[in-house]
Amino acid sequence: MAEFLQTVETSLAVGALYALIALGYTMVYGILKFINFAHSDIVVLGAWISLRIATEVLPKLGIDPRAAPWWAGGAVLLASMAACSIIGFVIERTCYKPLRRAPRLNVLITAIGVSLLLQNLGQLDLFFGTQPARMPSLLPNTPLVQWEFGTEGASRRLVIGLVDVVIFLTAGTLMVLLELLVYRSKLGAAMRAVSFNTETASLMGINVDRIVSLTFMIGSALAAAAGFLYAMKYPGLNQPAHTIWVLLGLKAFVAAVIGGIGNVRGAVIGGFVIAAVEQFGAFYISSNYRDFYVFVLLILMLLVRPTGLLGSTVKVKV
Amino acid sequence: MPSNAAHSPIVLREADALRPPRGHALLRGIGPLLIGVAIAAVMQWGVGPFVGTYVARILLDVGIAIILAVSLNIVNGLAGQFSLGHAGFSALGGYAAGSITYYGSLILWNSSVKHGGPFGAGEWLFVAACLTGGLVAAGAGFIVGLPALRLRGDYLAIATLGFGEIVRVMLQQTGDVIYSARALEQATVNDFFPPPLGGSLGFSGIPTYTSLFWVYLFCAVTIVVAQRLKFSAAGRAMVSIREDEIAAQAMGVNITKWKVRAFVISAFFAGVAGALFAHESGVIISPGDAGFQRSIEIVIMVVLGGKGSITGVLLAAAILSTLPEFLRDFAQYRMIIYALLLIGMMLLRPQGLFGNHEIWDYFKRRRKSSS
Question: Is the pLDDT of residue A223 over 80?
Answer without folding.
Answer: yes
